[in-house]
Design a protein that fits this description.
Elements (H helix, E strand, L loop, with lengths): L1 E2 L9 E2 L1 H23 L6 H20 L2 H36 L12 H17 L9 H61 L2
Length: 203
């Protein structure tokens, strides 16, 4: 058990494991929020607000020796983690969509062999966010963290493949240009030949 200082009433105490869990959840939520700032996505206001509510309920739990308030505090920390991770999921999905658009004209699977599988994982993360409302955030915060890590790894792999994909895209553009130049030249030659033939047949 975690007891308050001896100069306070002896019956003021809360289960140590519960308090430790609350502290761990707070630390994880804070890390998720810092990750958002580090990645240049700005502050995530919903998650910050959840940590404010966490502090309020934690204070009530400690001053009133109220386990129910401690549970509420932990739930707010879980929601903060979910909200922060949700913001990271959205940002990572946006990067993936940009990647798709950049290389839509080439066969990405020739460079990234498991491309289809990675895109299924990205779609699963997208569906996860769409399927969980605010009332269930504390129940699914751990899954949200897992999706963030999956998407981060996907984007790392995509970033590493960009050089090779750019080469393929440029080669395709060159091949396409040569094709149209060849077609244009052939049509021009044919038109000139037809014109000459027409003119030589005139009386």
């Amino acid at each position: 058990m975690l007891s308050l200082p001896s100069d306070q009433k002896s019956h003021y105490f809360l289960p140590k494991e519960q308090v430790d869990e609350a502290a761990s959840l707070f630390a994880e939520a804070e890390k998720c929020i810092k990750d958002i700032e580090h990645n240049g996505e700005g502050l995530d206001i919903p998650s910050i607000n959840e940590l404010r509510y966490f502090g309020w309920h934690l204070l009530k739990a400690l001053t009133q020796n109220n386990l129910e308030e401690l549970v509420k505090a932990k739930n707010h920390a879980k929601r903060a983690i979910f909200d922060a991770c949700e913001a990271q999921i959205v940002a990572n999905l946006t990067s993936i969509e940009n990647f798709e658009n950049d290389y839509r004209v080439i066969n990405v699977s020739e460079v990234i062999k498991d491309y289809s599988e990675l895109m299924v994982q990205a779609e699963n993360a997208k569906n996860f966010i769409q399927d969980h409302d605010g009332e269930s955030r504390e129940d699914y915060y751990r899954n949200c963290v897992d999706h963030v890590e999956i998407l981060k790894n996907i984007n790392k792999k995509f970033k590493a493949a960009r050089h090779d994909l750019n080469v393929k895209r440029n080669d395709k553009a060159t091949t396409t240009l040569r094709y149209f130049v060849t077609i244009g030249t052939t049509l021009t030659v044919a038109l000139i030949a037809a014109t000459v033939a027409f003119l030589t047949k005139r009386p």
